[in-house]
Amino acid sequence: HDHALMVALAICSLVLYLLTLMLAEKLSSNTVDAQEVELIWTILPAIVLILLALPSLQILYMMDEIDEPDLTLKAIGHQWYWAYEYTDFKDLTFDSYMIPTTELPSGHFRLLEVDHRIVIPMESPIRIIITANDVLHSWAVPSLGVKTDAIPGRLNQTSFITTRPGVFYGQCSEICGANHSYMPIVVESTPLTHFEHWSTLLSS
């Protein structure tokens, strides 16, 4: 963003200078017909666009790759709930349904709370593989900066790291059917010791 703003500032300054120059001085016929000037103002914008694109492409590439994640999680979209598999564990799978309003405990968020939360260790690179079993879904948790489509027959991958303990809420953000808005996602970030205790209890 700062890089793009500096480039925009330089371009605006140059254009303002040239406009002022054109208003203050009369252009000669040599300047009007100069093919060298036309060549420069054709090639220069292309170079500027390349300089703007290269840092963005580098950041996109770095964001998409995780060489050695600490935990791999698979999310499968169904109509209308999520199923999760902790692929690093032998038998750690569960379905996650929204808690109906009539059964919601006091103090919990309506339409956002689920019966089984995703529990992850904080400060650990998490890779999540996302797919769907029936129609298009989208696994989105805005507070974690994650939004990836779940497509039947295809595996999409994304990654994130939580830097603090907490509970992060999201929803399916694809119009997948009548109960599209009833597919909440709850991610609970805990210290590693708490995660190990939770995974042991759920596996046993």
TrEMBL record:
Domain Cytochrome oxidase subunit II copper A binding, residue spans: 68-201
Residue stretches making up the Cytochrome oxidase subunit II transmembrane region profile domain: 1-67
CDD domains on file: CcO_II_C
Alphabetical list of PROSITE patterns matching this protein: COX2, COX2_CUA, COX2_TM
Membrane topology designation: Multi-pass membrane protein
Major location category of this protein: mitochondrion
Gene Ontology CC terms, in alphabetical order: mitochondrial inner membrane
Cited SUPFAM superfamilies: Cupredoxins, Cytochrome c oxidase subunit II-like, transmembrane region
Signal sequence annotation: 1-24
Gene3D superfamilies: 1.10.287.90, Cupredoxins - blue copper proteins
Keyword flag Metal-binding: yes
GO molecular function, one term: copper ion binding
Comment on bound cofactor: Binds a copper A center.
Domain of life, per lineage: Eukaryota
GO biological process, alphabetically ordered: ATP synthesis coupled electron transport
Cofactor(s) needed for function: Cu cation
Location(s), subcellular: Mitochondrion inner membrane
Function: Component of the cytochrome c oxidase, the last enzyme in the mitochondrial electron transport chain which drives oxidative phosphorylation. The respiratory chain contains 3 multisubunit complexes succinate dehydrogenase (complex II, CII), ubiquinol-cytochrome c oxidoreductase (cytochrome b-c1 complex, complex III, CIII) and cytochrome c oxidase (complex IV, CIV), that cooperate to transfer electrons derived from NADH and succinate to molecular oxygen, creating an electrochemical gradient over the inner membrane that drives transmembrane transport and the ATP synthase.
PANTHER family for the chain: CYTOCHROME C OXIDASE SUBUNIT 2 (PTHR22888:SF9), CYTOCHROME C OXIDASE, SUBUNIT II (PTHR22888)
NCBIfam families noted in UniProt: CoxB
Protein family per UniProt: Belongs to the cytochrome c oxidase subunit 2 family.
Protein name per Swiss-Prot or TrEMBL: Cytochrome c oxidase subunit 2
